[in-house]
Amino acid sequence: MAKYYATVAGLPNLGVEDRKLPFSSAYFISELQQELTKHDKHLLDVLRYEEENKFLIRFLENETKAREASEQPQLIVYDDVEKVLEALKNRTELPKEHSLPQYMVEFLKDTQVEPTEEELEKKADLENALDEDERRTSYPIRLEDKLAEYYFNYAIACGNEFVAEWARFNMTLRNIFAAHISRELGWNPADYVVGDSLFERKLKTSTASNFGIDDDIEEISKINSILDETDITRRERALDVLKWEWLDEKTFDKVFDIEAILCYYLKLRIVERWTQLNEQTGEETFRSIVAALKKESNSSLDEFKRNQKK
User: Rounded to whole angstroms, how far apart are CA atoms 56 and 100?
Assistant: First the structure.
């Protein structure tokens, strides 16, 4: 396993309350290209793919707008998305070289390509072979959520314990917040929670006040405190502090390993996000998240905020 003594020793300190960046995440990534092994570059890319998901969704929603937007993907290439989609729909061989990770290819195949009768029958047979407890309670309804599930499964299976645990942790947080917001707005949590483990099934189906998950999550008391926070900006800050503390705990004994580099990148992204936000833009960001969760009327969002203040 590679050690990065000089690289880690030369990194400026980062604090969760910092509002000034030593350098951008883009610059950090560019500097790492000559430092990391091929394997460790891949692990960094696994973390970065999560942000690339939004670009794939934008392309599927409106290819022209996606190509003309000022913000462009850093890892995937829209031309490759087009070529892979064409090959999948025509059931021909995929391009020998393309920029899409395997989970995106599988996502495109499962959501953008009409299955044959044979494939439908095979899927039905697989479902029938499962017992009642093994069958899914529901699939997410939004493409963003479907893609998130593919991504998390991909990251969890990447072969690195730190990356896998980080993916599980973020999947857990994402699902808890999705379930609570769905319940507040009167929506079905099963439409937005990704995954199908026992934990996720509780979030999808439980009628308990806290979905019956109090004994399943080590950080549940902190998460509940964040959920109880009515100020949107403070809630977002508290969530990032929780993630920061998790990163510190998981890497304190891996000072010069790749995990330290990956941790620094993730922390840099947290600080970077807050240097670009103030209270107004933080509010707008949250509004866009809720609005995207389901295209509900403004009255639904107002009702949600009124309930939060009670």
Answer: 10
CB atoms within 10 A of CB 209: 8
Q: What are phi and psi of 263, to 5 degrees?
A: -60, -45
Determine the pLDDT at residue 299.
46
What pTM, to 2 d.p., does this model score?
0.85
pLDDT at 306 over 90: no
Out of 199-213, 256-270, 272-286, pick the least confident. Answer: 272-286
Q: What is the mean pLDDT of the chain?
A: 88
Residue 116 to residue 119: CA distance in whole angstroms: 5
How many Cβ atoms are within 10 Å of 105's Cβ, its own excluded? 18
DSSP annotation string for 208-225: STTTT-TTT-TTHHHHHH
